[in-house]
User: Fold this.
Amino acid sequence: MKCLCPIYQKFYNSLKSINELKATNSFFDNIALVDNFFLEFRNITFVLQKHLQTEEEKIVYRELKSKYLENDSMKWFVEKRNEVSKEKSFELKKKFIVDIYCIKNEKNIISETITIENDDLNSKQINDKIAKILSNIETSEPEIFLTIKYEFLNNTEEIDIHKTIKNGINTMYDFILEFDKKIKNDCKICDKLKGQIDNKIKEYSARRMELVTDCSYNVKNNKLEFYDKADIYYGNKSDNFFYDGYRIPIKDNPIFKSCDTLDEFFKSFIIAHVPLYVMQQHHIMPTFLIFYSDETFSINSYFAFNKATHYRKVNEIAKKIMTDDIIAIMCVNESLSYSARNENIYDKPYKERIKYATKEMLVFTIIQDNLKEKNICFDTSKIDDLKYVMDIIKNGGIQFVDMTLQPIREIFNVKNQKNN
Assistant:
């Protein structure tokens, strides 16, 4: 057996189906896509068994099946395949959640569940519903920032199927690739199919971004305003997915490998990003570096076309503090300051308010798990001057505390209290 094309084709078919699952689809179309995914996905092993030719191949198959597929997570896929092929269609539930942000934290204001028994609201109806609820919030702010999140769930088990399917895809691909390697498959068509599968898997990883929308609500005009967003995902060549949270060993990074303390890491973080800011004509993506107790770190960079994106990212990172072994979080971000004499400036929406900014700053912050914090702030009108930059790094600069990072401070504090 020197060719796995039928197996790779089945795997590709399953990925093609799940990649077409969208919040904007007809509810019935989405159910059909999920059904087809399960049928194709779990038929992979049936097809593989049919093509086993030698006793050696059968032994390899049994060993790898035990290693990768005989666990509760993968058995769930077998159960769902059996359901959709013999009993009923997948019981899909579409849910949308709206998070509203203030400087301190985030607050869930809407948790609406859509099922097949209810009217399947289209995007406009959902947005109108959200705007109506927001219009009843009493606030002195000119706008409210929010994120609309769509989730696809199993109706009976409340399982996030995107997360579960992502893990299943990764496990199945590892299973197939190791089998491929052990039997010394040298088929050129298989190599082409693997390239297409790699693209489909990365497409699926990125498609989840479509289920999150950052926007603002103009209080005066009773209108939702939507913005683009873009994330940067990291991984290595052996990863099937590029993902937020990929951990990099400190010893493998040329910038940090000679650092021994968090203060040294922070200084290196600044020295690496200030020249980048200058080279990019005074622009930089907001970037978080998250350090873990196992001497690894992860990077979270993104384009923030709307303040809601930044608030969402801060809250997402803050939530990880309770579950991950995070010891410090660093951040670089651009910030604006305004004249204290302009009392009415905060009555204006953000995109109008920025026209009145008197100073632009590049702000670096480190918050440690013991709540020790340090901020280094540069006046961007002087940042091209190397002497100024080095003086600020050595002696400190403009006094500034980034209040948008308050959720991170609070969760570190809560975790400390639980551990004491």
